[in-house]
């Protein structure tokens, strides 16, 4: 799901060319394909007037890994996307061999899944691994034909093979309340603790006007068996909402930092914005109390579009992606912004804090080609301090091309501090984004997945397929060792991404 009224104007892989001003990733090897067909193909639940189903389409992945079990990887994504919100259900996948192969497991959070909750659709999946080998999951479950909606928690104690303790953390049944953009974070300093956060929109009785949208929190202290009653941790003024709440946890100090986008509208119609900015609140007592909001950066993101046709792209604009250095506690926030283009189009921007979020740097541009728009960043920090970011851009699009939208997928890394993203690698063949599902714009997800284990980065992301209306997108995985540019010796020992389990073909059908 997305923020309410942000933009008033919006009520086989085909290789299209790999020309670039930067060096592609070493070996130009393809990633591992994780998704293989839909376990919900026979499900007929969730249809509503005006809805379009995209069968076989996967979007919006999240990924996590155990620090103590480096060979294990767990991911999750939306499966069979609807045009007007959510999907048939959510599917997770786990690997025991460092991401060479994956096994898929449907999450029991919607009616399409075996033993699933009694909801017609599901959305916004998130995973986070904590001490003791526990993986925590978060999902949004809701109906298309009634206002009933819920934030759902679930837990795996066996590395993603099975999911238990499926819990409706909050349930609303009226049009005047809607829960959105949830995430979950395991606490590395407090075994058994994890935190679910989301925004809860408070609307008029008919659901057409926005009154407020505070941030809510629910906590488990018993490894996901039970969750606390939700409570507000970020109050909002009249006609204000948060969106994209995500917590990062400091394994050394135990501090928690919740990041979100704060939007102040001028009135309940939410058609005009007074201010929009990224903010953060801090807790030093395991989530019991929280600081007042700190402004992190202005949100200068603009609507992403196909520059040749004006077609809307639904991307990660307005969604913050934070990370923390596990050794120093330095904080980072990656986001889409137009500071470096005078508001013309988005770049990938990064700000950082070295004083526990009290003050923040000016933005740094992350993406390699400043002449084209870039979107949907994900960020993670390795144990050695390397800062990794994945994103998409349109550098291979040529003027006059109105039939395809060649889109590239990138990984870039900077030494600790995030000041020098001068090592960029292409991690998938160029694909045509016009083949992606339509959900208020061509849609791959409001976010993609990136995690670390030790000095290794692990990415889970979506690309589009051409000529496959029954399978418009797929989920892929790749990983890299440290590629720190801090010393010539470090650069010389740069390791290529892992070889794939299967190779993509330009003529794949």
**Can you summarize the main beta sheet?**
9 strands, mixed
Give start-end ranges of low-pLDDT stretches. 7-29, 485-509
State the helicity in percent bands.
Answer: under 10%
Outline type: globular
Radius of gyration: 21 Å
Which percent band covers the strand fraction? 35-45%
Structure summary, number of beta strands: 31
Structural class: mainly beta
Distance between the termini: 30 Å
Number of helical stretches of at least 4 residues? 1
Mean pLDDT: 90
Organism: Actinoplanes ianthinogenes
Protein name: Sialidase domain-containing protein
InterPro entries: Sialidase, Sialidase_sf
Keywords: Signal
Structure description:
- Helices cover 1% and strands 44% of the residues.
- It has one helix spanning 488-492, and strands spanning 32-33, 53-65, 73-82, 87-95, 103-106, 121-130, 134-142, 149-156, 164-172, 177-186, 194-203, 210-213, 215-220, 231-234, 240-249, 256-265, 273-283, 294-298, 313-314, 321-324, 331-337, 347-353, 364-365, 374-381, 387-393, 406-414, 423-432, 442-443, 449-453, 456-464, 473-480.
- The strands form seven sheets. Strands 10, 11, 12, 13, 14, 15, 16, 17 and 18 form a nine-stranded mixed β-sheet that branches. The chain has a four-stranded antiparallel β-sheet with strand order 1-31-30-29, with no helix packed on it.
- Strand 2 (53-65) and strand 3 (73-82) form a beta hairpin.
- Residues 487-503 have a biased composition (Low complexity).
- Residues 1-26 form the signal peptide.
- This is Sialidase domain-containing protein.
């Amino acid at each position: 799901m997305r923020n309410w009224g942000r933009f008033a104007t919006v009520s086989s892989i085909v290789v299209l060319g790999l020309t670039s001003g930067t060096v592609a990733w070493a070996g130009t090897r393809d990633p591992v394909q994780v998704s293989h067909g839909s376990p919900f193909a026979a499900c007929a639940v969730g249809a509503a007037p005006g809805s379009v189903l995209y069968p076989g389409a996967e979007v919006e992945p999240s990924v996590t890994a155990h620090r103590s079990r480096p060979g294990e990887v767990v991911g999750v994504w939306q499966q069979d996307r609807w045009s007007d919100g959510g999907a048939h259900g959510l599917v997770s996948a786990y690997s025991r061999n460092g991401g060479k192969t994956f096994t898929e497991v449907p999450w029991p959070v919607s009616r399409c899944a075996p033993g699933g909750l009694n909801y017609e659709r599901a959305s916004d999946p998130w995973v986070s691994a904590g001490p003791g080998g526990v993986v925590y999951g978060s999902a949004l479950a809701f109906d298309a034909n009634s206002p009933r909606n819920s934030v759902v928690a679930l837990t795996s104690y066996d590395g993603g093979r099975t999911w238990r303790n499926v819990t409706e953390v909050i349930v609303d049944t009226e049009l005047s309340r809607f829960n959105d953009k949830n995430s979950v974070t395991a606490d590395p300093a407090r075994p058994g603790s994890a935190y679910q956060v989301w925004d809860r929109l408070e609307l008029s009785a008919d659901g057409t006007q926005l009154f407020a949208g505070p941030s809510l929190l629910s906590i488990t202290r018993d490894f996901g068996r039970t969750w606390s009653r939700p409570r507000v941790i970020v109050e909002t003024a009249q006609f204000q909402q948060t969106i994209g709440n995500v917590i990062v946890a400091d394994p050394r100090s135990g501090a928690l930092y919740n990041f979100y986008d704060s939007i102040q509208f001028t009135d309940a119609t939410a058609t005009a914005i007074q201010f929009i900015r990224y903010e953060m609140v801090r807790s030093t007592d395991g989530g019991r109390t929280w600081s007042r909001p700190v402004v992190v950066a202005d949100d200068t993101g603009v609507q992403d579009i196909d520059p040749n046709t004006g077609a809307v792209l639904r991307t990660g604009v307005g969604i913050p992606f934070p990370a923390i250095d596990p050794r120093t506690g330095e904080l980072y926030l990656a986001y889409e912004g137009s500071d470096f283009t005078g508001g013309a189009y988005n770049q990938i921007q990064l700000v950082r804090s070295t004083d526990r979020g009290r003050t923040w740097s000016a933005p740094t541009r992350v993406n390699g080609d400043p002449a084209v728009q870039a979107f949907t960043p994900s960020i993670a920090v390795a144990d050695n301090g390397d800062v990794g970011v994945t994103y998409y851009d349109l550098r291979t699009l040529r003027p006059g091309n109105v039939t395809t939208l060649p889109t590239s997928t990138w990984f870039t890394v900077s030494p600790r501090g995030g000041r020098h993203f001068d090592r960029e690698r292409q991690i998938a063949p160029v694909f045509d984004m016009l083949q992606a599902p339509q959900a208020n714009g061509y849609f791959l997800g409001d976010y993609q997945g990136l995690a670390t284990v030790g000095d290794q980065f692990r990415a889970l992301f979506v690309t589009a397929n051409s000529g496959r209306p029954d399978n418009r997108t797929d989920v892929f995985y790749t990983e890299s060792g440290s590629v720190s540019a801090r010393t010539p010796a470090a650069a010389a020992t740069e390791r290529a991404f892992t070889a794939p389990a299967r190779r993509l073909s330009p003529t794949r059908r």
